[in-house]
Amino acid sequence: MQYNGFKITDQERLEYAKMLKQVIDSDKAVIYVDESSFHTWKTLNKTWAPKHNVINLPISSSRGKSLTVFGAIGTCLKKAVFMLAPRNDAENYCVFL
User: Fold this and answer.
1) 22, 35, 58, 92: which could join 85 in a potential S-S bond, CB 3.0 to 4.6 Å?
2) Could you write out the three-class secondary structure of the chain?
3) What was the pLDDT predicted at 54?
4) Phi and psi angles of residue 28, each rounded to the nearest 5 degrees, phi first
5) Torsion angles phi and psi, residue 85, rounded to 5
6) 40 neighbors 68 (Cβ within 8 angstroms)
């Protein structure tokens, strides 16, 4: 429901918020897990040079290998936990969990 939060009505969003508050107030463990992927370098798309100096700079469209960070915070965790992975896939997600 949270994932589709932008596709629900205001009433459904309010009901979800009430339900989430009840879970938080009940002292049950609440854990938030997320992931984000990054490329190891940004594609070079411009450079600077003095006027009339031509620079021949081949620009690759490759952004290199990606790196994924899985992370979690929660009411039952003493501190945030994270894991680095070479890919964002089900196998690495399960390893993190």
Assistant:
1) 92
2) CCCCHHHCCHHHHHHHHHHHHHHHHCCCCCEEEEEEEEECCCCCCCCCCCCCCCCCCCCCCCCCCEEEEEEEEECCCCCCEEEEECCCCHHHHHHHC
3) 76
4) -75, 155
5) -140, 155
6) no
Contacts of 68 (CB under 8 A, 6+ apart): 35, 36, 37, 38, 84, 85, 86, 87, 88, 92
pTM of the model: 0.59
Place of tokens 């680095």: 84
- CA–CA distances in Å: residue 79 to residues 53, 73, 75, 92: 53, 7, 9, 21
φ, ψ dihedrals at 32, nearest 5°: -110, 120
Domain ranges within the chain, ordered by starting residue: 29-96
Considering all CA atoms of the chain, what is the largest pairwise distance in Å, rounded to the nearest integer?
70
